[in-house]
């Protein structure tokens, strides 16, 4: 049995033969096989994933009663590295949250839609707590699911498909609440939480704060943005309080399980023969949170859409989501369906979270590949490097064109006046 590492600087010693053996037993539902070889490559490009190491592993194996035919399976493995500055991941309990989602929540949600054969996410094969928190998943590329372009953003066809799937996902979480209300206890906080905001030295909060300052430096030079600049400076003076305000939701309101990090690289699309997207699966549920659907919708709108889609299809996409949600709730015999106006108000109430996503997350997503290849959590610990990257992010033509529009839109909504 041989293990080969291709373009991997540090070999993951914890992903040994026994680990791979356990993965295959769970993936294949059998034990009578021998592993012949395993080839490790990186599962994501440098600068595409900040909080974990992603590997794609192709495993060749033979069945004990059929040793002449070598079979192959591909799996995805995600490990959370032990480096300084990512204490926020511990605060957010990301490993436990993702484990609970894939092990207990996802199968029940998909079971609710078993007649429609709706699939939301890949299968989980195995987890490790030590030495590194690790999860092994089904590789969706075998089912022809692929990533879209984060640099370009998503067009209307992709966006409508996501809204449909998101409505189904949120509806399933509401229906599941009737049968297993305790599951929401694991999803009390998402990307922004009171605990992570208490850390003055937390890397995530320092990065978001740096992005906000870079935004102000950029727009204060623009004519016709003087008043907006003043309002954003006022927002920045109460940065943490405004972040908490952006995630506030009513305990008795219409809440759902939000994906929590709904941007283009956490979606894999399946296409038909004319390259139209026909299905989507979601990955990376470590930021999932039980809250208003306005969290997912605003985050997605202001991180992942092409600008012309945001400009022209904003209302249509909310309606697409509502129709999918309402139809799915009825199909699941869940009679507490909100009105369209209710959903519209939830999106509007959380537009401040959309603003956070627009200045805190979108700059990283829209960064050109040539500038992102050296980006990692480790490198962002260096203040000079972080400042250089922020300048590169905010010099992006796509970013500047987008925020010229979105800041005016947010101002018209009145989110800076509250």
TrEMBL record:
Source superkingdom: Eukaryota
Coiled-coil features, chain-numbered ranges: none
Pfam families registered for this protein in UniProt: EcKL (PF02958)
Residues annotated as domain CHK kinase-like: 135-331
PANTHER family associated with the record: CHK KINASE-LIKE DOMAIN-CONTAINING PROTEIN-RELATED, PROTEIN KINASE-LIKE DOMAIN-CONTAINING
Listed name of the protein: CHK domain-containing protein
Annotated source species: Glossina austeni
Lineage: Eukaryota, Metazoa, Ecdysozoa, Arthropoda, Hexapoda
């Amino acid at each position: 049995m041989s293990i080969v590492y291709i373009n991997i600087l540090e070999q993951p010693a914890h992903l040994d033969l026994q680990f791979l053996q356990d993965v295959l037993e769970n993936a294949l539902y059998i034990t009578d096989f021998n592993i012949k070889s395993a080839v490790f490559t990186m599962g994501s490009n440098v600068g595409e994933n900040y909080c974990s190491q992603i590997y794609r592993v192709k495993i060749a194996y033979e069945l004990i009663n059929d040793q002449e035919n070598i079979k192959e399976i591909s799996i995805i493995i995600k490990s959370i590295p032990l480096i300084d500055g990512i204490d926020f991941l511990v605060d957010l309990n990301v490993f436990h949250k993702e484990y609970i989602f894939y092990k207990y929540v996802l199968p029940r949600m998909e079971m609710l839609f078993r007649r429609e054969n709706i699939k939301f996410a890949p299968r989980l094969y195995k987890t490790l707590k030590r030495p590194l928190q690790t999860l092994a998943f089904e590789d969706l590329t075998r089912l022809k699911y692929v990533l879209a372009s984060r640099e370009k953003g998503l067009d209307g066809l992709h966006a409508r498909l996501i809204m449909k799937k998101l409505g189904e996902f949120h509806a399933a979480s509401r229906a599941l609440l009737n049968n297993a209300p305790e599951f929401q206890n694991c999803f009390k906080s998402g990307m922004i939480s009171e605990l992570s905001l208490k850390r003055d030295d937390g890397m995530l909060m320092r990065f978001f704060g740096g992005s906000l300052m870079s935004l102000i430096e950029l727009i204060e030079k623009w004519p016709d943005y003087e008043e907006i600049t003043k309002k954003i400076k006022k927002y920045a003076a109460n940065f943490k309080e405004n972040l908490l305000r952006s995630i506030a939701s009513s305990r008795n309101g219409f809440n759902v399980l939000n994906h929590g990090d709904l941007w283009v690289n956490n979606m894999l699309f399946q296409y038909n023969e004319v390259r139209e997207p026909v299905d989507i699966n979601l990955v990376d549920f470590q930021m999932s949170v039980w809250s208003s659907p306005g969290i997912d919708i605003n985050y997605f709108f202001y991180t992942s859409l092409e600008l012309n889609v945001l400009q022209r299809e904003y209302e249509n996409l909310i309606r697409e989501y509502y129709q999918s949600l309402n139809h799915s709730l009825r199909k699941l015999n869940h009679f507490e369906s909100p009105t369209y106006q209710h959903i519209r108000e939830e999106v509007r109430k959380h537009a401040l979270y959309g603003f956070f996503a627009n200045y805190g997350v979108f700059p990283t997503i829209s960064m050109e590949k040539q500038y992102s290849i050296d980006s990692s959590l480790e490198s962002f610990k260096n203040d000079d490097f972080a400042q250089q990257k922020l300048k590169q992010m905010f010099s992006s033509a796509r970013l500047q064109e987008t925020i010229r529009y979105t800041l005016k839109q947010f101002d018209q909504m009145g989110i800076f006046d509250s």
